[in-house]
Each structure stands twice: as structure tokens, then as C-alpha cells.
Amino acid sequence: MRLAALVVFLTAMVFPVRGQSISSGTVQGAVTDPSGALIVGAQVRLANPVTNFQQTATTDQSGAYRFSNVPLNEYQLSVTASGFGSASQHVDVRSTLPLTVNIALKVASEATTVTVEAAGAQVETDTSTHQDVDRSTFLKLPVFDPAGGLNQAITYSTGAVAADANGFFHPVGDHAQVSYMIDGQPITDQQSKTFSTQIPLNAIENMQLITGSGDAQYGDKTSLVVNATTRSGLGATKPYGSIESSWGSFGTWSDNATLGFGSTKFGNFIALNGVRSGHFLDSPEFLPIHDIGNNESVFDRVDYQPTPIDVVHFDLFTTRNWFQVPNSFDQLSQDQKQRVLTWSIAPGYQHTFSAHTLLTVNPYVRRDQVNYYASRNPFADTPATASQNRFLTNFGVKADIAHSQGRHNIKAGIQIQQTRLLENFQFGITDPAYNPVCLNAAGDALLLPGVTNPSACSSINPTYVPNPNLQLGIVPYDLTRGGSLFNFHGKANITQFAAYITDEMKFGKLTINAGLREDQYNGLTTANGVGPRLGMSYQVFNNTVVRASYARTFETPFNENLILSSGTGEGGLAESVFGSQSTAIKPGNRNEFDTGFQQGIGGWLIVDADYFWKYTHNAYDFSVFFNTPITFPIAWNNSKVDGVTARVSTVNLHGFQAYLTLGHTRARYFPPEVGGLIPLGGFADNVFRIDHDQAYQQNVVLRYQRPKNAEWIDFTWRYDSGLVVSGVPDVAAALTLTAAQQADIGFSCNGVSATYSTAITACNGVGKSTLLTLPQTGTENDDHNPDRVKPRNLFNAGVGTDNLFHNEKGGRWTLRLTVENITNKVALYNFLSTFSGTHFVAPRTYQAAFGYAF
After folding, report:
1. How, if at all, do strands 544-555 and 580-583 pair?
2. Exposed, middle or buried, 389 (CB in 10 Å: 0-12/13-18/19+)?
3. Parallel, antiparallel, or unpaired: how do β-strands 605-624 and 694-705 relate?
4. What is the pLDDT of residues 753-808, one digit of tens each?
5. What is the pLDDT, as a whole number, of residue 25?
6. Which residues pair with 795 in a beta bridge?
7. Cβ proximity of 71 and 132 under 8 Å
8. What span, in angstroms and rounded, lies between the C-alpha atoms of 772 and 830?
9. 178-182, strands of its sheet edge to edge
């Protein structure tokens, strides 16, 4: 009854509010002298030496200071004032409740200016594995991915993700099981730029990347939770901003501008971005063909604080991706294009009842519209032509009450959301040899454009036989045999409700986080799940913390093309279109266990490591449609995923800072396929490694910056041992590839290499590939010896300055030069993957940027 009363109360609070809450904390207080008199003009600094987060403030006429947008973490608060000795205090920001820290300064023996250095690295007592990333770190990464900067920053900040094409990544052994919390707005739909659009990186202040078992406030997609806080103009009495223009390889140029301004009660921050590139997507050839694209985005955050206990926020965002779909050497005549349009409105509100209780309400509405355009000549698309127009709209509210008192830090809340889907899809076969009706005596495909009935084969020629692998369901849509386009139209609404309560308790050196979450899903199928969460950490020594956690989570299907994959639209897929049957994808559930530790070494180094094990019933992935970016969600009976993640980070050592991230994942999926488009006859009845599986990945990031934000250099080294390749399991499968495909993977037999004009059709000796491990025929094993992409090392470097002319006052001119893939490494993300297609790593890329900041 108490939980029900809480739900009613929170629901009632939703409708009258406006604004946007934030998922960060606030540190405030006053600075006084020994007599208690307020000190005006004291310099206050809040810093974390590992994440590089830093804010500074000057006490006002009432001796007060305030820091907003503070990520939940541990900090050192330092205060200096002329004529007084410096003071420093450890601050632990555990919740969104404002934290009041008052500082009393002692009188110095003489008036001096004191410089306070940041304290050493401190371990955290959080029960869940996470990484905290500040904009001072991710904005200088020497990586460039048009319209995909957010995912690139995540990939280079944690070892828990395996990199894939188009800015996509596999979080902790899963496919796209990511929740993006942008200023408290939950976004669980896919954020790869072929599915949707992303908030620009220069609009983000900081991120918390949760890769362990999250507490009960997180649901839906929980393999990785990205808690992002955007930049704000609240309290910025002096306007700040930047303008920058860059130029690079493949005809790439971009322009961006930011502006923040405000007062103690009002703030506004806006970010404008535009980019055009001839290498917009990762292409199926090493050098891009037909790969021009552009992105434009506008982000605006408005803050208003009418009283000290009320804060109103608005996040307004709109953006567009338009791009050509890259061609391969086998499909040079294609002219397919795609447009993705996104807009989002996310107001919210925070009310502080007391120093112990805070109400947060976040309503939101967001829409993705995807238009996929076939070539004007449908027969230029091979082996099929396809077009699509789909809408994905979700709106809802997330509201909770946080209460902190004594050893308890309690949060209870609800989340209500409806997702509205509208899908229109067309396709038709354009290659008569793709699904031939008849074969000759040698088993070769016969074109026979007018033949649609296999029983007519022998009447045409006694030696002709029906194709035993004929997919009857797509014969009516074979345009080479007089068929027509298949048309699909579907609409559906998915309503989700969740209620949760969680409590973080401190018992000396022991921290316990216990919670409970209930989810209800009403869509194409209906299900509910109850998920207990429990995490514990113990501070063994001052610089050593061990932790363990368990989470029972409710997993929901992907929304993109969900209606089509489930075959529930107008006409359905009863005729076995695509040579498959359709089954509605059901929600699943997962048991996840995590254990890890954090170790501080000498006050300048932090080691953080975690082992995870996840067992999922109804494990999700996507299946790619021919050579297009169109994909359909599918589900398998079970999956077992386990592995290790770790990060080693230094503090800022006189301008030098470094970190290493690493990860290892085993992702084993178990048949049968239980949802989505299931091929007639099904898949092989054995366990297999899915393309999320990668033995090892690591990032090494080295950075040095001279004092006063001047010259800097940044270097990254990324190693990937290689994802699983499902489309070409062994040498025998490689023999069926086209000449261009064999040349792409560097295929050879007995030292004779395939060329773009000459394929190898028989191999009695040893077959090899320069880009794939390619097991010999008969030695491949889906579980223990699958084909994989060969390991790759990628090196990037950037140099620049934040103050080109060393101007001590006013604005600063900035300059940076970046080289990505320095060695011009030829490598694959994947090849003919059932789940993601073929994509090469981008060739060597140069970029130069020049700007002005104030």
C-alpha cells in the first residue's frame, strides 16, 4: 500500500510541471573567517584529479558559492583568499540532493596568494562498476566520426565495449542494450547513426558510464547506462562559448558553435553543429564509394531557478542525418540513400523539500523518422530493391523522490512511457539468379524470367529440375519474373510502466545498495517482471575497495522494425515472405552477477577491475537485410555472456595523464531462434558465438598539456582481437564468394591470390585470408573455433593549443591537427555478417580545426 500511495503521489505531480532535471549533484556553501564573518571574493575550487573534472567559483556578497552539474563522485574542495590560509576538504557527492559544505578559513601570518594542488586519487565505494568521463578528456580524443562523436567517446573511455562499424559498439557482450540518460531523459532506442541521431559531443559536460549491475532506477536496457549531463548557462554571469571550423580528408568539413550565458536565476546554452563528409559511413570497401553524407544539429538547454528550492529545465534538440549508402565493387550502380530526422523536447523540474528530500520530474517526447530510398532504377539494386519509411515516437515521464538521512540514501519513483511505431516497407527481387525456379542438370541456376512455377521446369526442358532451395514466398515479388513489389504497412503502440525503490546504506566501511523494480510491458506481446537488485562494497583499506552485486533485469525487444519482424502489419508475412516465418518477439529476463575491486596506488594511480556473468532468456540481436542498413530484430532462446573489464588511470601529473582500458567477452547464444524473422527450417541446432564475442580489446590514451590551457598532445592506441564472422565460416564458404569479395579479404589458396576479376572456385590445399582467420574446411566450430576478423592495432594522434597566441585576457584562438589510423591499417569490423554486414575500418584520415573560444 505504501508503494501504491507513492505511485499515486508522483503521478499527480507530473502534469503541472515544466523544466528539466539533471542527473548530477549540487555542492554549495559559505566561506567565513574565524569569527564567523562572511568572506567575499574567496576562490573556491572543486576537482577530481582522475576524471579531470574541475569547477571554480568566487564567493558572492553573501560569502556563498555554488557548483551545479556535478557528477556523482568524490572530490577535493579547496578554498583560498587573500590574507587567509588555504583550506581543503574531501567531498562525496552521492545523490542529486544539494550538498552544503561550509568552510572556515584561518588568518594567515601574512597576506599571501596560496596555490592549492589537487589531492591524490581516491577510491570510490560505489557498489556498481562505472567510469566517470569529463569533457576535458573526451573533447581532445584524436578520433573523428561524422555525427557519431558520442559513441566514439564512449568506445575510447571504457574497455567494456567492442567497437563496430558506423560508431556502433557492443556493450558488455550485448547488442545495443544501452540506456542513454540525457539530463534525466531516458533514451533506450538505438543511437547508431544509421538508426537514429545523437546529441553532439560539445553539448555534454560529463558522462558516467555504468557497466556493472545498476541499481533499481535503471531498466529496459541495462548492459550500459550512459548518464550524461549537458552544459548549462545557469550561473554564468559572463557569456562563454566557441566557434570552430575544420577541414579533413575525403572532402570533409564541419562547423560548430556554442554559446552559454545567464545569471543566478536564468541560464541558456546552445550548440549548433554541421558536418559534411565523403566518408560518412564505414564502407564495404577500404576506400569509400558513394559515401557522401551530412549532419546538422541544434541543441538548446534553458534553465530557470525562480527560488532557491525550485529549478526548471528545458532540453530542446533537433538533428538530421542524410547520407548515401556506400557501394561495393559488386554493386557500383546502386544509388540508395537514407535520411534520419530526430527531434526531442525534454522538460523537467526539481523541488527541494528540505536538506534531506528532493523531488525530480522528467517528462519527455522524442521522435525518430527514417526514410530509406531505393535507387531510381530498381534493377540497379541487387539482389533486391528496398525502401522504407518508419516513425518511432516515444513519450512519457520519469519521476522520483530522493531522501537522504543518516546512513540511508533512498530513491523511489515511477517511469511511464508509450512508444508509437509506424512502419512502411517495400522490397522486390532484382536478380533472377538469386531465387531461381529451375536448375539445369549440373545444378546451375537458370534465369528463365517468365517461369514462376517449379512444376513447369521439366516441360521446358526434360533436363531442367525444380530448385530444391526455392523460396516460394518471395516468387510473387521477383521483379525479374513479372512480380510486383511487396508492400508492408504496420502500426502499433507499446506501453511500459515501471516502479522502483532503492536504498544505499552506509555501515562504516561497508556500503549496501538494495532495491526492487517492477516492469510491465504491453505491446505486440505482454509481460511483466520483478527485479531485485543487491550490491555491496567494502573498503578493506583506505586505498582498497572490493565489491559484488546481483541484478534481475527485465529485457525488452528493440523497437526498430519490430512490427515487420513480428509479421503483424497489414497482410502480415503469412506467405513466408523472405523465405521465413515471423514470430512476435517477447520480453526476456536476465540474471547478472558482478564482482570487482578498486585499488589506489601511491595516490596517483587507480586500478578498477570487474568480472561479469550474465544469463539471459530471450537474447536479442539484429539481422541485416541484404546489403542495406535495414535490419530486423530477432531473439534467441538463451545466451550466456561473461568476461572481464578494467581501467587503469593516473591523476594529472604536472600536465601528463594516461589511462588504459581493457575488456574480454565470451558471448554464447543457444538455439532455437524464438522471435523475429525465422528462416524456414531454422538455424543449426547448436550453440554459437555471436558477433559481440571478442577475446580482447584495449585502449591506451596518453595526453600531455602545458599549463594555462596551452599546447597539448594526445595519442591513442586501440587494439581489437577481432569479432566473430558469421557469413563466411570457413574456406569452403570463401570459395562461393565473388571475385571482388575474395580480393577484399585477401583470399588465397596455395599461394595464389584472388583478384577483383578472377575468383578462386576450388582449393585442394591451404586457403588463407589476410583479414580473416578463416578456418580450414571441416575445422570450423561455431562455439570453439569460429571464423573471426584478424586482430588490428589502430593508432591516432592529435596536437593543438587552447591558446594559440597566449592571450592572458579575453578570448583565445584554438588550433588542432589530428591524424586517425596513422599507419593506414587495412582492417575489417566484420565481413558479410548475418547481423551487421561488411564494413572496413576507415583509412588514414587527416583533420585540421581552427577556432575561437571566449
Report:
1. unpaired
2. middle
3. unpaired
4. 999 999 999 999 899 999 999 999 999 999 999 999 999 999 999 999 999 998 88
5. 83
6. 717
7. yes
8. 9
9. 130-134, 204-210, 224-230, 178-182, 185-187
Q: Which three cell numbers stand for residue 506?
A: 552506509
**Residue 535 corresponds to which cell in the numbers above?**
550490491
Cell numbers that stand for 45 in this block: 575550487
Q: Which residues contact 277 (CB under 8 A, 6 or more apart)?
A: 146, 248, 250, 251, 252, 292, 293, 294
pLDDT confidence band for 235 (50 / 70 / 90):
confident
Q: In which element (H, E) is residue 4 found?
A: helix 2-14
Rounded Cα–Cα distance for residues 488 and 558 (Å): 19
For 221, the 3-state DSSP assignment is: coil
Query: Identity (one letter) of the amino acid at 99?
Result: L
Give the tens place of pLDDT for each residue, 806-840.
888 889 999 999 999 999 999 999 998 877 789 99
Q: 3-class DSSP state for residue 644?
A: strand
pLDDT of 12 strictly over 50: no
C-alpha cell at 575: 506467405
Alpha-carbon distance values, 712 to 188, 365, 649, 701, 818 (Å): 36, 40, 19, 13, 12
3-class DSSP state for residue 155? helix
- Report the chain's C-alpha Rg in angstroms: 28
Nearest to 360 by CA among 352, 370, 368: 352
Mapped onto helix, strand or coil, the DSSP state of residue 336 is coil
Handedness of CA 60, 351, 27, 50 (dihedral sign): negative
Q: Which helix (H) or strand (E) holds 693?
A: none
Could you tell me if 519 and 236 are in contact, meaning their C-beta atoms sit under 8 angstroms apart? no
Residue 66's pLDDT band (boundaries 50, 70, 90)?
Answer: confident
The torsion angles phi and psi of 820, rounded to 5 degrees, stand at -110, 140
The per-residue pLDDT for 353 is: 93
Nearest CA to 247 out of 815, 821, 825 is that of 815
At 683, the amino acid letter reads F
Residues 6+ apart with CB under 8 A from 686: 671, 782, 783
Which residues lie below 8 Å from residue 426, measured CB to CB, with a gap of 6+?
374, 386, 387, 388, 485, 486, 487, 488
Q: What share of the chain is helix, strand, coil (3-state, %, to 5)?
A: 10, 50, 40
Euclidean distance between the first and final Cα of the chain, in Å? 55
Give residue 13's pLDDT band: very low, low, confident or very high (50, 70, 90): very low
Q: What is the mean pLDDT of residues 126-130?
A: 91
User: Residue 648's CB: how many other CB atoms inside 10 A?
Assistant: 18
DSSP assignments along 342-370, one per residue: EEEEEEEEEEE-SSSEEEEEEEEEEEEEE
Query: In angstroms, rounded to a whole number, what is the distance separating the alpha carbons of residues 782 and 187?
Result: 34
pLDDT confidence tier of residue 566, bands split at 50, 70 and 90: confident
Residue that is written with C-alpha cell 528462416 in the block:
679
Place of cell 504491453: 522
Q: Report the C-alpha dihedral over residues 773, 774, 776, 780, rounded to 10 degrees.
A: 90
520, 531 Cβ separation under 8 angstroms: no
- Whether 151 and 167 have beta carbons less than 8 Å apart is answered as yes
CB 786 within 8 A of CB 807: no
The whole-angstrom separation of Cα 166 and Cα 279 is: 10
Give the per-residue pLDDT at 114.
38
pLDDT value for 8: 33
Region class of 692: left (phi > 0), else alpha (psi between -120 and 50), else beta = alpha
User: What residues contact residue 660 under an 8 Å CB cut-off, 6+ apart?
Assistant: 646, 647, 648, 649, 698, 699, 700, 701
How far is Cα 802 from Cα 270, in angstroms, rounded to an integer?
21
Helix (H, G, I), strand (E, B) or coil at 203: helix
Grid cell at residue 133: 568521463
| pLDDT of 199 over the 60 cut | yes
CA-CA distances (angstroms) from residue 21 to 273, 301, 667? 24, 11, 37
Return d(Cα 50, Cα 606) in angstroms, integer. Answer: 8
